[in-house]
Design brief:
By secondary structure, the chain is mainly α. It has helices at residues 11-18, 22-56, 63-95, 98-122, 124-127, 162-197; strands at 145-147, 150-153, 156-159.
Length: 198
């Protein structure tokens, strides 16, 4: 016996098929696709961060250049987190899925922390000496340092180790699973209603 067609629907397709407003459905589906794409980029960035850091730790004469380059990669890594959070909000607002609201609420604090890291990098000029936000930093002299597996800037700390990537992967898996579960229920309800009407 063949499994029902609905067993083969992924989360993106379920958004497209179960949101009645076509524009919102397309918007939510594209946003989820972007989330999954930025997660893949985050995986590449973690590899690049730690690749450059290992070159910096190799005591080569260019160690400072490699460390600086790892900071650029941390910036791009933080962009992945920020974009995933932004796109999760698009899915939440367009889908009307209760489960997506709960996932956003559950992971909001950590996603906002990494969005703050992205903001720190985006407005780095304001954090530099004589910049308008330098003196408001809890540690004005901290313009980017590595501390164990973390990155600090202005006295704030963010984990940029593979453990942080594992956390991001968990968040995206949670989102996809919840969308799939609620989407499948909605899809099956639609199919039942259509049967009753025919």
């Amino acid at each position: 016996m063949r499994p029902p067609f609905s067993d083969h629907l992924d989360a993106e397709t379920l958004l497209l098929r179960t949101i009645s407003d076509r524009t919102k459905a397309v918007r939510a589906m594209i946003a989820l696709s972007k989330i999954n794409g930025y997660l893949l980029s985050a995986r590449f960035q973690i590899g690049r961060i730690w690749g450059f850091l290992s070159m910096a730790e190799s005591h080569s004469p260019d160690w400072s250049m490699w460390q600086t380059q790892s900071f650029q990669e941390i910036h791009f890594y933080s962009i992945c987190w920020a974009k995933i959070w932004k796109m999760m909000q698009v899915v939440r607002d367009c889908s009307g899925f209760q489960s997506v609201k709960l996932v956003c609420r559950r992971h909001r604090i950590i996603l906002e922390r990494y969005t703050d890291l992205r903001d720190q990098f985006e407005h780095y000029d304001e954090r530099m000496p004589a910049g308008k936000k330098n003196q408001s930093l809890s540690h004005p002299g901290d313009l980017g340092n590595l501390s164990g597996k973390g990155f600090t800037l202005g006295g704030k700390h963010w984990d940029v180790s593979p453990a942080s990537l594992a956390e991001l992967e968990k968040i995206v898996a949670d989102l996809n699973a919840e969308i799939h579960l609620e989407g499948l229920t909605r899809y099956q309800d639609q199919q039942l209603k259509n049967k009753e009407l025919s």
